[in-house]
Design a protein that fits this description.
about 120 residues, 6 helices
Length: about 120
């Protein structure tokens, strides 16, 4: 239970920080969200964080990494284990690659379909 609460808190903090960053990008330090009224020093601290070289380097690296993805996950936030359990419940024979197929392969996506065709004969459980 504690781990679940901690994970939700981390997700909410990350979402909140993203919203603050979007406000900062839109209007700069003067675009302080109303939730910081009376806590202007915290908004200033957050702006300094957004302006830091370390943050900019990490942000740029993450953007580059996302841009280099060749296979995009498309089952939302559902973990692969849930996809596998769903396939088992449906009574489908379960080679390891089925999870890959359901998670990554989409009609018309030649890159992932090619990988699926190449890998699938070697990964049957």
């Amino acid at each position: 239970m504690f781990n679940w609460i901690l994970k939700r808190a981390q997700e909410r903090y990350k979402d909140w920080k993203y919203q603050c960053y979007q406000a900062y990008l839109k209007e700069g330090p003067s675009g302080m969200p109303s939730e910081f009224i009376g806590r202007e020093d915290q908004w200033e601290f957050l702006c300094q964080h957004f302006e830091s070289d370390a943050f900019k380097r990490l942000s740029l690296a993450n953007k580059r990494n996302r841009g280099e993805k060749t296979m995009h996950h498309h089952t939302g936030s559902s973990p692969i284990i849930y996809t596998i359990e769903e396939l088992i419940i449906q009574g489908k024979q379960l080679p390891k690659i089925k999870g890959f197929e359901k998670t990554y392969v989409r009609e018309g996506d030649e890159v992932t379909t090619k990988h699926y065709v190449i890998v699938s004969p070697f990964t049957i459980m």
